[in-house]
């Protein structure tokens, strides 16, 4: 049996604004993600998806309940955790190579070795030849590739992704999903992937969690038995995929209707 990588037990998270307005973002929220599992979260806007990721990182502690990573309570930022967000986290004044080398440099590697490692990752994400370009010289999809290289170079054991591909056009998005699965399959980090797109969730994940409208809690959990390695662009036309998509939408639509 696999060990738990992430455990949230009966977590609630309350925010109080400077004016004293209280928002309950999550209520009695429990979720376990096992080592090497790819878990996607879908839910209506404002149901607490980003708040959940923030609690796993340690940046946003729960108001009650417990959050554990590899069996230990989360007390601060853990170097085993990597993130990819919707916005690009690239330094505009650094080249592609140096952007990718930043992680190893921050972790104490000397610049020469960090650049060698970065060159290998730049190649792996399909950006060979663009090492000395700057972010403004790249397309949105290429910047996302830089973001993946920046994250995977640190070999995170846990990967948190908050709508990472939502700003991309449909074709680039499908390519990036394929790229992500290829990179993930090599080391099998435990992934929590937040998205508004049910088909993206099914294409990528082993399990899709549907959250109820805010204050969010787990409404349902769906195992995704599609075979791996998975080819995203082909998998989505199978009967099984369409069936899963309808089933999850049936659950989600009650939560998104106003
Ligand atoms: N720092 C904060 N201060 C006050 N309220 C907050 C704060 N962060 C989040 N919230 C509130 O908590 C609730 C959940 O927010 P969160 O960003 O986690 O939702 P989400 O599901 O990620 O939304 P979306 O799908 O729109 O990105 C919302 O009502 C939001 O307004």
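^ structure tokens above, recovered residues below v
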């Amino acid at each position: 049996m696999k060990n738990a990588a992430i455990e949230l037990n009966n977590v609630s998270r309350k925010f109080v604004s400077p004016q004293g307005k209280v928002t309950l973002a999550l209520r009695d929220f429990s979720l376990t993600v096992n080592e090497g599992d790819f878990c996607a979260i879908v839910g209506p806007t404002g149901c607490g998806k980003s708040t959940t990721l923030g609690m796993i990182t340690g940046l946003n502690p729960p108001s009650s309940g417990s959050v554990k990573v590899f069996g230990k309570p989360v007390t601060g930022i853990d170097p085993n955790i990597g993130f990819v967000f919707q916005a690009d986290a690239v330094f505009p004044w650094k080249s592609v190579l140096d952007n990718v080398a930043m992680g190893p440099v921050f972790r104490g590697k000397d610049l020469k070795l960090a650049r060698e490692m970065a060159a290998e990752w730049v190649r792996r994400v399909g950006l060979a030849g663009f090492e000395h370009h700057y972010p403004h010289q790249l397309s949105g999809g290429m910047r996302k590739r830089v973001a993946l290289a920046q994250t995977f170079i640190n070999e995170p054991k846990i990967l948190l992704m908050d709508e990472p591909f939502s700003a991309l056009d449909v074709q680039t998005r499908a390519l990036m999903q394929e790229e992500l699965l290829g990179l993930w399959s090599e080391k099998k980090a435990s992934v929590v992937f937040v998205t508004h797109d049910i088909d993206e969730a099914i294409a990528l994940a082993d399990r899709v969690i549907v959250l109820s409208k805010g204050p969010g809690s787990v409404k349902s959990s769906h195992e995704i038995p599609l075979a791996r390695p998975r080819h995203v662009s082909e998998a989505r036309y199978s009967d099984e995929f369409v069936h899963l998509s309808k089933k999850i939408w049936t659950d989600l639509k009650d939560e998104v209707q106003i």
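Helices lie at 49-57, 96-106, 111-124, 140-152, 170-187, 198-204, 232-235, 239-256.
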